[in-house]
Amino acid sequence: MTQSPYLAPWVQTLVGLARNPALCDVPIQLIGLDPDLPDATQPLDAPAVGQLRERYPESPSEPLQTVTLSDGRCVAVFPLIDRAISGPLLAAVLPGGRNNAEALTALTTLSSHLDEVLPLDEELEGMTDELVRRYEELNFFFDRDSVVSNQLESAQILQNMLVNCNEALRVDASVLVMWEGGNSASFVTADNGLPSGTLDRIIKSDELRLWLQGIRTTIVLNTPDERRNHGLSLAGTERIVASPMLDSNRNPLGALLVINRACQRDYENSDRNLAAALADRAVGVLSVTFDALTGVLQRESFERSVGIALDEARDQRRLATILHINMDQLKLVNDTFGRDKGDEALKNVAAMLSSMLQPGDTLARLGGDEFGMLLRDRNPIAAERCAKAIVRMATEIACGDGRRQLDVGVSIGLVYIDASASGVVDLLARADLACLEAKERGRNRAVVYSENSSALGARRNQMHWVTRLQRSLKEDRFELFAQTLRPTDPAAEEPHFEILLRMRGQDGGYVSPGEFLPVAERYDMMSSIDRWVVTNAIAYLGDQYALNVHGPATFAINLSGDSITDDHFLSFLLKALSESRFPTEHLCFEITETAVIRNLTVAQEFIRRVKQYGCQFALDDFGAGVSSFTNLRALDLDVLKIDGSFIIDMLNDPTSAAMVSAINQVGHTMQLKTVAEFVATAELAAAVADLGVTFQQGYFIDKPVPLAQCLERIATLERSA
Asked: What is the rounded distance in angstroms from the CA atom of residue 106 to the CA atom of residue 122?
């Protein structure tokens, strides 16, 4: 017989209450219950318990009976469940036998209490079983760990969820309604016996759709009056529970509808609570499985699919192809027409890609403008044909505002899954490389990954550097160096230095910036690197300045064009300057002429905001641009650095010498300090000095050294002065 988990605590409590002075000598024992419960000081042994069960009357008038054992002891016995002597027992050996009237009276009172408690216990146990059953069904209904490996399988999983919802709530139908924007919605339904046409009439009602988008709490509609009270005049007599599916900002993603015919039972509060829980769990499952905007799978599910395909390629030689699809013009669409139009383009591309799926295929959104498709059981010719069809169909997707229009277009990288791949990450990286190559070749095309392609080989090397840069940023593997700018007139200028960057390699040596900065620029990592330099340079200079390690000196920090045009970087820099312990008037930021030309207005505002902290600005590589003197007058600068290509050639090329002289004169006319870069010989140093250039910089003047070593030099010179 099953023992209720609530029975033993009830009995133990009542036994405690019953142990009054009149019963202090009565050993009370619980038989067949929790073995951890304390027994009496003189428990009955197994043979004695056997006698109790044998000698207990078959049809007692009262559950409390006295039984005399073979050794003469008199025992009061009370069956704890269903008056069954074969189950758990409460037993008490009576000192003085049946003549112990006081003990029998107390035990009779105890047994009457138990007679009242045990039916309640059975009811509670039944309720517990029901709650456990529903809890288990709900967990099965929304299993967060379910592996969704393709679109068809995901639809089947949602269908199974609703089938289990019908069983858990014992209803005729349940529906997941998912908003797709505007007036569109998609449905997953489980109809368990509604009359034909009823479900379509309900879920496709425009009135219901608008009403559902407005509710923010679960609502029970048992009667037409209740519908009208909630502002809904939907025809029909069905009983409905409507529970909204809300994102973290309480925006509607969809709704769960639970529907019963009018002849079925009314919904109760428990049904409403369970429906609300189901809707919340649905949001959780959908948010980790499906992309909220496009409705296709997310990256995690796609990677699972690729892993399965790789295993099958190794074990069964099953064919599979990955397509990495990148929308060519999404950023331009966002910038030109706004993000709403960009979102519309994403959904249109997702819908087009979905139309290309065959059974077993998978489609996912991998990132902002990237999709991944996994094609199953298609040979290379069929896979390439599919990719080319996607490219062609994407050119027919356009975005506009009625006056202007942009074609979206896609670039695709293909990789065939075979046993040579080391894993999922390797396969996705190959597809990404092929997609980048497609964009390099002019976009709107598909490129197949090949180990023998020289272009893809170069790109693989670049991606290797990207990985190294990411790891170096994470592991703090960069180091600050500094190079001296020597003044032509030492008495007129304080010490100037340019802060430079080196990366420490695995062997402990230094990697030249010429090896990693071009990759950082190409793959939009310069702002992250600039943040590292600014953070560490200002912190270290501030620490040393606070310790009076050196006197006044100006340090120049290079900023990339990406950082100049990044509002988040400007906010970061202004905060760093406001918290700096190093005097900000001794900081100079170098920006290139190329970066300024790209966005002059933004550069002007950037300089204005930073100069509020007293910082200086230098224009680097001046003379390399196409409109140098025009831009120069538009900027609030302090230093002009002459492009090194002119300095190198000035002794042998009269044109270069004339350019250096002209730039130096223009700079001084504008009250700017000038710097000659790439001064590599004594002859060049003498030539630029004759022109009156303010500072000289190059390997002849000083080679870059670690920043700490540079500060030690300053301190040494100050002590010797």
From this structure: 25
Residue 676, beta-bridge partner list = 642, 696
DSSP letter (8 states) at residue 442: T
C-alpha 283/C-alpha 288 separation (Å) is: 9
With the C-alpha atoms ordered 126, 130, 131, 133, is the resulting torsion angle positive or negative?
A: positive
| DSSP annotation string for 534-592 | HHHHHHHHHHHHHTT-S---EEEEE--HHHHT-HHHHHHHHHHHHT-SS-GGGEEEEEE
Given the structure tokens 């598909």, which residue do they identify? 446
Q: Which two tokens stand for residue 18?
A: 């019953």
Query: Which SS3 state, helix, strand or coil, does residue 322 take?
Result: strand
Cα 426 from Cα 315, distance rounded (Å): 18
CA–CA separation, 43 and 363 (whole Å): 70
Q: Is 617 within 8 Å of 638 (Cβ atoms)?
A: yes
Tell me which H or E stretch contains 25. Answer: none
CA distance 363 to 344: 18
DSSP codes, 332-386: HHHHHH-HHHHHHHHHHHHHHHHTT--TT-EEEE-SSSEEEEEEES--HHHHHHH
Which residue's structure tokens are 């001296």? 484
- Say how far apart CA 177 and CA 209 lie, in whole Å: 9
Give one word for 524, left, alpha or beta, with left for phi > 0 and alpha for psi -120 to 50: left
Distance CA 546, CA 535 (A): 17
Rounded Cα distance between 229 and 238, Å, is 16
With 0-12 / 13-18 / 19 or more C-beta atoms within 10 angstroms meaning exposed / middle / buried, residue 361 is buried
Q: Is 101 exposed, middle or buried (0-12, 13-18, 19+ CB in 10 A)?
A: exposed
What is the predicted pLDDT for the residue at 642?
92
The alpha carbon dihedral of 260, 264, 269, 273 has a sign of negative
**Contact indicator for 232, 215 with CB cutoff of 8 Å:** no
Query: For residue 447, what pLDDT is reported?
Result: 93
At 327 the three-state DSSP class reads strand
Contact 418, 392 (CB under 8 A): no
* Cβ-Cβ contacts under 8 Å for 203 (sequence gap 6 or more): 175, 177, 187, 189, 257
Give buried/exposed letters for 41-65 (b at 16+ CB in 10 A, else e): eeebeeebbebbbebbeeeeeebbb
* Per-block mean pLDDT, blocks of 10 residues, the chain (721 long): 48 54 58 52 75 86 85 84 77 74 75 71 66 56 48 63 79 82 64 83 84 88 88 86 84 86 84 84 73 82 88 90 93 82 90 89 89 94 95 89 82 90 84 88 90 64 75 89 92 87 84 82 85 95 78 88 89 95 95 80 93 95 68 88 91 91 92 94 94 95 92 75 59
* Nearest CA-CA partner of 238 in 274, 193, 277: 193
Count of beta carbons in the 10 Å neighbourhood of residue 642: 30
Do residues 504 and 479 make contact, with C-beta atoms less than 8 angstroms apart? yes
- Report the sign of the C-alpha dihedral through residues 381, 382, 386, 392, in that order: positive
CB atoms within 10 A of CB 573: 25
